[in-house]
Amino acid sequence: MLFVDEGDVLSAAGSAAALDLGLYLVRRDHGAEIANAVSRRLVFAAHRDGGQRQFVERPLPEVPDASLSPLLAWAQERLGDPLTVADLATRAAVSPATLHRRFRAQLGTTPLAWLTGERVALACRLIERGEERLDVVAGRCGLGTAANLRARLRRETGLSPSAYRRRFGPAPGEPVRA
Length: 178
Hints:
This protein is mainly alpha-helical. It has helices at 15-30, 32-42, 69-76, 85-92, 96-107, 111-128, 134-141, 146-157, 161-168; strands at residues 3-5, 10-12.
């Protein structure tokens, strides 16, 4: 056991366990979303149960050539819409091939991989906030079906949606946050 909560007395097993205890207190007092944000900032697991990948937030990258910045912001506001690479290229007023080259040069990835990653990140945030229905999460983040959401989440995080919810979602009985 990493830490013990005996009501008025809390005790941790060591310095790393003190971080576990601190995150437990943040989760208890401020909710899962805040605790998850703190754990990511610390690059420390929200709940340690051994052998876990790092779950670090991915902010929009600094883009030296700002030509993609407006497109990225526009797309992030529409992740639930049926966006395609062709839609992104049309919005950027370039061909799909040119858009692909710009994404590779500026972000080191493809437009489709970026779009999928952003959709999975949105799905994770929705699960963290307590959305239980995978079909709702899949629809709101543009992944379409619960089956596709399961596959994409597992590929990106190494966790099933239920395992992700256990690790990062609200504690049982905790109110769902909007």
